[in-house]
Amino acid sequence: MIEVRNLTKRYGQRKAIDNINFSIGAGEIVGFLGPNGAGKTTTMNIMTGFIAATSGDVTIDGMDIIAEPERAKANIGYLPDTPPVYLDMRVEEYLNFVANIKGVKRSLRKEIVKYAMSQVFIDDIPRRLIKNLSRGYKQRVGLAQAMIGNPKVIIMDEPTIGLDPKQIIEMRDVVKNLGKKHTVILSSHIMQEVNAVCDRVMIINRGKIVASGTPQSLSAGITSGANSMQVSLKGDARQIQNAIKEFSLIKIISAETGAEPGTADFVLAGENNEDIREAIFRCMVKNNFPILLMKASELSLEEIFLSLTDSDRTSIDATLASPEEEPETIEEPQEEPAEGDAQDDIDI
Fold first, then answer.
1. Cα–Cα distance for residue pair 76/149, rounded to 1 Å
2. Residue 339 domain-assigned (yes or no)
């Protein structure tokens, strides 16, 4: 369905994406996972024809996005991180406007708009002004516009950004349902979101795809030829980390302060099929750190993400910071109430 070959985008001397290649089959739900600035949005903007690549090719259902832009784009529905809605229009009015732009036959518009609204559960508010809707409902209206014209591919950039937990769960359900009839691509830097809805994950870092597969296959790939262990230890986390560094056989995958006071939890791995249990035991006995728990561990998607995207990380100082060293927390500003009468506001 989608083929991306040797795709590169430069801004001056900086490469936003660097010679990436991937294929996505019909009916897949694929997640682009990566830190902010990794190249996720740039890749999506090129796939939708919004911006041009410096080099490389993108084909949608066999049609080149540059050579046959109209035919290729007819197969794409796009929801950017900010919903592309006209706030002074009513929901149904806006979707009919989108249907007109997309060239949907007049005789089919009513049915298609009604179907799109029902799929994202906004068919009960067709006459509401969009500006009076909550962020969650605006996001749904944006997704409905992406569905107009029944595109084979739906691309969503951070579809749950700014939503509350209940809205996030509902949006995930909508995405899963879309996967039954469409190929779906979504970007996120939230591991739980990608893990909850995607058949496959592509981890992007510094403009390159550093891994691709299911969370289970990624975990197996990272720990392939290794013995990964989850260890809970009694003692100072920083001192334990320094002690482990003396044993070259043991690699620290992740670390965090333990649930109990004076403890630390580590995920440790060995290379070349080495059994690291004895090495862990010798290390802790030598340094007098009691082992409270040690068991085989399967890496979570979050640990995989950190392992693949934080290549410069030599320690996990942020998670092991003492109270006086913790970074200052900045609260996200609250969204101001939408304009309009209070009784017109809708919250999910």
1. 9
2. no
Checking DSSP bridges between strand 55-60 and strand 63-64, what pairing results, if any? antiparallel
Q: Is 240 left (phi over 0), alpha (psi -120 to 50) or beta?
A: alpha
Alpha-carbon span 12 to 136, nearest angstrom: 37
Same domain for 115 and 101: yes
Burial, 286: exposed, middle or buried (Cβ in 10 Å; 0-12, 13-18, 19+)? Answer: exposed
112 and 195 both lie in a single domain: yes
| C-alpha span between 50 and 38 (Å, rounded) | 18
Per residue in 194-231, pLDDT tens? 888 888 989 888 899 988 888 667 755 555 434 678 89
What pLDDT, in 10s, does the model give residues 38-69? 889 999 999 999 999 999 999 998 999 999 98
- Pick the closest to residue 129 from 299, 345, 303 (CA basis): 345
Q: 153 - beta bridge partners? A: 76, 183
